[in-house]
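Weekly sync, protein design subgroup
Attendees: M.S., D.O., the rotation student, P.L. (late)

Item 1: inverse folding check
M.S. brought a backbone from last month's batch and wanted to see whether the design step gives back something sensible before we order anything. D.O. pointed out we never logged the input encoding, so this time it goes straight into the notes. Structure tokens as presented (170 positions):
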């Protein structure tokens, strides 16, 4: 099954000059979604991870499925103001501006081995910020995991100190 057949390009979204990769066609096809989760999980059973982080918002979709497949806890990393309690925050640059991410401080324990998942690796800023949040909590990132990678944006450079896996490359 070629998963690229289930991802469509939306030009000029969210702003002019950006080509958004829409995963909606993948999500509405249960067989394709299951296949993607199987591929994302392949090779992760032996790394002894304890948690999977999903980055808001599309990283929640496959991140939670991946955590369930691996039998691990799932931790959402959110945009500011969406989590109650004690939170940690990290700012980052992305291909069309700046933003920040937050995590509940108690959701990653000292020594947790964490898989960081997002739908797309673009410039690497978002994933790098999520990795820093894991480390601030005392966890260790054992892999950065992506449904797709936009190779031309060189996001892999910002994550060079981490093991990295992307299913699809554009």
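Designed sequence read out in the meeting:
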């Amino acid at each position: 099954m070629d998963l690229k057949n289930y991802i469509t390009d939306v030009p000029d979204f969210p702003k002019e000059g950006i080509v958004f990769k829409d995963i909606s066609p993948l999500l509405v096809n249960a067989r394709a979604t299951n296949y993607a989760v199987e591929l994302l999980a392949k090779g992760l059973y032996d790394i002894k991870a304890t948690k999977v982080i999903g980055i808001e918002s599309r990283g929640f979709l496959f991140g939670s499925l991946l955590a369930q497949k691996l039998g691990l806890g799932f931790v959402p990393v959110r945009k500011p103001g969406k989590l109650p309690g004690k939170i940690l925050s990290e700012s980052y640059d992305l291909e069309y501006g700046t933003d920040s991410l937050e995590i509940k401080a108690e959701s990653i324990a000292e020594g947790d081995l964490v898989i960081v998942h997002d739908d797309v690796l673009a410039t690497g800023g978002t994933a790098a910020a999520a990795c820093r949040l894991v480390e601030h909590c005392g966890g260790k990132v054992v892999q950065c995991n992506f449904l797709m990678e936009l190779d031309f944006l060189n996001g892999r450079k910002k994550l060079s100190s981490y093991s990295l896996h992307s299913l699809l490359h554009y």
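Discussion: The first strand starts at residue 8 and ends at 11. The two ends are 17 Å apart (CA to CA).
Action: P.L. to compare against the previous round before Friday.
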